[in-house]
Specification:
Aliphatic_acid_kinase_CS; 15 helices; alpha/beta; 6-stranded mixed sheet; 2 domains; cytoplasm
Amino acid sequence: MDGQAILVINCGSSSLKYEVYEMPAGTSLGKGTVERIGMGTGMITQEDPSDREYYLEQEIPDHGVAMSLVQKALTDPEKGLIQDLSRISGVGHRVVHGGESYSESVIIDDDVIAAIENNIELAPLHNPANLTGIQESIKLFPGVKQVAVFDTAFHQSIQPSAYMYGLPRELYDRFKIRRYGFHGTSHRYVNRVAVEHVKRSVENTNVISCHLGNGASITAIGGGKSVDTSMGFTPLEGLVMGTRSGDIDPAIIFYLLERGYTPEEVNTLLNKKSGVYGLSGISNDFRDIQKAVENGDKNAEETLEVFAHRVRRYIGAYMAELVKVDLLVFTGGVGQYDIDVRERICRRLENLGIIIDIEKNRNNGPGLGIISADYSPVTILVVPTNEELQIATDTHELIFA
């Protein structure tokens, strides 16, 4: 069947993002955002490919009201994306945590909803909002199949040697404390696009995927399956990020507690006041850091070097894990757009067969393209991620396969 409209929903605690795709072509019909839900005066903004913009401000007390605003925006006579709601053939939902229950996207039923609820304790800031989006969508689109696409699902192929921590096993048995990994939908998408771009088969291609943005993670992908990933039990582990510390000596936490910090303060410190923001003292936006570097700010320069060093360290580890690496992929807001950061990361990786071409890197821009030297054993690519399209693809395939 051709021409099904798939609605993709990413529901947060105070926001709701959505996009409509014409499938199986994968053409976006437009997207929108509802902001400041439950925070007084909120707003909904929607635009289509011709840049027609729909905008409305009003009080948005809950997600039910937010979904009703989405309905009105989608079908607005002048600036809507579809003629009526009957055009929606399926709804795909981003769900952050599927725990160990799901290794792939699934059509939502009572068991899936129960699993999302059971994993709330593993993602208390995200799963409740994702679940609310599902429940409100079911009300708005009765009879339309809904699909859950889990951020953690792609990483369920990781073996115990990579996902178990060096903690008493009872903590895994009782509390399921293990590495879960995140950004799985993005890593899965860019892996497929990169392999197609270089005209290889997924089965015999090994990839290191670097999703670098305010949240950042690296995944080792062997034959299309996640082998290891930098984020862990939570998205705090791994790389230095926009405001997150990434890997630290856990004893630092107790050191701070002994000096008067409360657990809440330490949690805020590590998640919201660290990373690039904390190191630079300037911003969590890499563009601001780059400007400061150009003005001679030594802390800003050091911050970018710390970030690049951490990324290189994971690349080196995953080169060893995969044994043979064919592709190194940069994606995410920083990976896709920041030419300087890509150069900083690839500096000193030549001995591993990763050789960037400076001119290709600077001329490629943020689009899909190869930026490695012709003689580089490992091909380096920039691949714009599109998690929404991946969710729409999964939804369409599950409903209409």
